[in-house]
Amino acid sequence: MKFRSIISGKQVPILGFGTWRLGGTMHPDTSQDSRIIAVLQAAIDMGYTHIDTAEMYGGGHTEELVGQAIRDFRRDQVQIVTKVWHTNLRYHDVFHAFEGSTRRLGIEYIDFFAIHLPSAHIPLAETFRALNELVDRGLVHHLGVSNFTTEQLKMAQEYAKTPIAISQAPCSLYNRKFLKGGLLTHCQQNNILMAAYSPFERGDILENPVIEQIAHKYSATPAQVALNWISRQPSTMVYLMSLNLDHLKENLGALELEFLPEDIRLLDELEMPEEKLWPQ
User: Fold this and answer.
1) Which end of the chain has less Cβ packing within 10 Å, N or C?
2) pTM
3) Domain span at residue 213?
């Protein structure tokens, strides 16, 4: 595993383990609990020591599964990111959300505590008053945001007493909205990690003929090509999720690939096929 250094000096793995849909979507699903815990533990052993979750995932059950998975590891061996839902951003609600997440995770502090979605009704100043207090008390080590535009991230920086460490956004070879909108450039200028999620676009990217051609040329997989393209951008990391241990091992190889300039250019110019465009 390779790492990025954030402003505090902490080393963050370039590939993180995302947990959306593990243990349910908006409501708990316990049907695969044993398998999920086993895969999470195996992933940590492989080097996926940065785990992203949220109070909303599985109605809180996903955090419980992560908590069970990390129980046998030293606390300093894993980095936990969890996110407070946009309806819980009032001052007192932030503390309540923090207490619920730490209880379900079975931990005393959170490495990265992030706002899951910006709220159109709750002022950021109120939310960060609570977040800043959690940092001051040593209960949260770093702050983050998710699904924030560049302008919203700038506003968050104004209210945060400590530097924003991570800004999560959907990003892939097809979805470059946040790249073109200046988010990555701003993150690079402010020593913020842009954490890309949904790197495979529901699998559509893995069937792209250009990506398949480049993968074949370098004896790689399409997934490795897609991950490499994102992770080679400065100040980026990628969240991925798989319950297939072979795929998790393969994905680690994405960080070792070196492409010729002409192949990088092909990837940079790649566009989503018209038939794959999502309805607006």
Assistant:
1) C
2) 0.95
3) 3-276
Query: Coil, helix or strand for 56?
Result: coil
pLDDT digits (tens, 9 = 90+) for 202-253: 888 999 999 999 999 999 999 999 999 999 999 999 999 999 999 999 999 9
66 in Cβ contact with 19 (< 8 Å) = yes
- Cα-trace Rg, the chain: 18
Run of H or E including 231: helix 222-231
Q: Integer distance in angstroms from the first to the last C-alpha of the chain?
A: 37
Q: What is the CATH number of the domain that holds 88?
A: 3.20.20.100
pLDDT number for residue 277: 45
Contact 97, 55 (CB under 8 A): yes
112-148: pLDDT as tens digits: 999 999 999 999 999 999 999 999 999 999 999 999 9
- Residue 174 is among the residues annotated as catalytic for this protein: no
Q: How many domains are there within the chain?
A: 1
In order of 58, 194, 220, 270, 278, the CA distances from 175 in angstroms are 26, 14, 22, 10, 11
